[in-house]
Amino acid sequence: MTSSSMDDRGERQAHEGRWEQLNRSWWDPRVVNCEMCGQMIPRDVWKSADGHSFCSVECDDLYRSYWLPRYGGKTTTHD
Ligand SMILES: [Zn+2]
Questions:
Q1: 28 CA distance to ligand 1 centroid (A)?
Q2: 15-17-21-27 Cα dihedral, nearest 10 degrees
Q3: What pTM, to 2 d.p., does this model score?
Q4: How far is the CA of 23 from the centre of ligand 1 (A)?
Q5: In what order do the strands lie in the sheet containing 53-54?
Q6: What residues form DSSP beta bridges with 53?
Q7: Which of 5, 14, 28, 42 holds its CA 20 to 30 A away from the CA of 22?
Q8: What is the spatial distance between Cα 71 and Cα 36, in angstroms, rounded to a whole number?
Q9: Predicted pLDDT of residue 47
């Protein structure tokens, strides 16, 4: 096993969205969870262009490549 492609971790701009900081007050009971993995997001949340919240760009990636094709997109006009 070689790690020859270590320099290939460039920043792909495949995701549309931006990082946002949750400026919650200590008394604010709202908790933001990643819509992909369900992990609680303590401070930095990835807001995708279509309004989803993820803990990381990786989860955004997973969401689109894995979750959406299977469960998402209520475009089942098949009945
Ligand atoms: Zn996540």
A1: 21
A2: -110
A3: 0.67
A4: 19
A5: 17-21, 44-48, 53-54
A6: 47
A7: 14
A8: 12
A9: 96
Contacts of 48 (CB under 8 A, 6+ apart): 15, 16, 17, 54, 60, 63
Q: 11 C-alpha vs ligand 1 centroid, how far in Å?
A: 18
CA of 78 to the centre of ligand 1 (A): 31
Instruction: Supply the pLDDT for residue 78.
Output: 54
Q: Which letter does DSSP use for residue 8 in this model?
A: G
Cα–Cα distance, 22 to 2 (Å, whole number): 40
> What span, in angstroms and rounded, lies between the C-alpha atoms of 79 and 49?
30
What is the mean pLDDT of the segment spanning 12-33?
81
> Is 20 within 8 Å of 47 (Cβ atoms)?
yes
Q: What's the 44 CA to ligand 1 centre distance in angstroms?
A: 11
Mean pLDDT for the stretch of residues 31-45? 93
